[in-house]
Design a protein that fits this description.
Layout (H helix, E strand, L loop, with lengths): L3 E9 L3 H10 L3 E7 L5 E9 L3
Antiparallel strand pairs: 1-3, 2-3
Length: 52
C-alpha cells in the first residue's frame, strides 16, 4: 500500500508558477489551492509518496 506525506506552502500571486515548479521538481504533486488570509495570498496543498 502506498504511503503519502503532505505539505502546505503559501503562494504569492505574482510568483505562483516559480513556486509550483520548485515543488514539482522535488517530487510534490499539487492537490489543491485555497485562498489565504488576504487577497494577495493563496495556500497550496501538496502530496508525494513516502520513501519506504
Amino acid at each position: 500500500m502506498d504511503k503519502w506525506e503532505y505539505a502546505t506552502a503559501p503562494l504569492l500571486i505574482h510568483n505562483t508558477k516559480q513556486i509550483l515548479d520548485m515543488w514539482g521538481e522535488d517530487g510534490w504533486e499539487l492537490v489543491t489551492v485555497l485562498p489565504g488570509q488576504n487577497s494577495e495570498q493563496l495556500v497550496a496543498y501538496f502530496k508525494r509518496k513516502r520513501e519506504q
